């Protein structure tokens, strides 16, 4: 548990982390107190870096493969703040980020889900393969990752819900604006900070 003094008030902070290897490192270093996601605790604030965010504050998150745990943290937090540099701010998702939307799936379902995207969304989903090992990338939950190469602009709130009910899909890396309370965008040229809110 980290402690900070702010205006003579002592603030206690419990950090959530979504990477198991980071958990162990920080615990071993005695740097932070880790709150287990299954403990029933609720985060007051969650600060997140994202892969891309549009002007309506819809975001792609989870390119590193931890999208399900990221979504749990966002869902259980009272307030979510997004931090990004200006290169990740787009008019619409897909303008500046070309790796696609990550989708965590049950391994045995990847052919079925790939077919659904081809026939219903007219898009492709690529099974993410390991770089330094053979075979697919395996998440901390023991699942596969598909990268959805979408071609169209969607109503991301409804699209997230539509995808979540497909059997075999565990979670999608779409973070609609309903999850996001504020975004802080740093201009990479002059380092000024812009503050954006949903529905602006």
From TrEMBL:
- Lyase: present as a keyword of the record? no
What GO CC annotations are associated with the protein? cytoplasm
Q: In which pathway does it act?
A: Carbohydrate degradation; pentose phosphate pathway; D-ribose 5-phosphate from D-ribulose 5-phosphate (non-oxidative stage): step 1/1
GO MF assignments: ribose-5-phosphate isomerase activity
Query: In the Enzyme Commission scheme, what number(s) does this protein have?
Result: 5.3.1.6
The protein's matches in InterPro entries, at most eight in alphabetical order, are given as: NagB/RpiA_transferase-like, Ribose5P_isomerase_type_A
Tell me the GO BP annotations in alphabetical order: D-ribose metabolic process; pentose-phosphate shunt, non-oxidative branch
Among its keywords, does the record have Membrane?
Answer: no
Q: Which UniProt keywords apply?
A: Isomerase
Enzyme class comes to isomerase
- Residue ranges of coiled coil: none
Q: Which family does it belong to?
A: Belongs to the ribose 5-phosphate isomerase family.
* Listed PANTHER family: RIBOSE-5-PHOSPHATE ISOMERASE (PTHR11934)
Q: What is this protein called?
A: ribose-5-phosphate isomerase
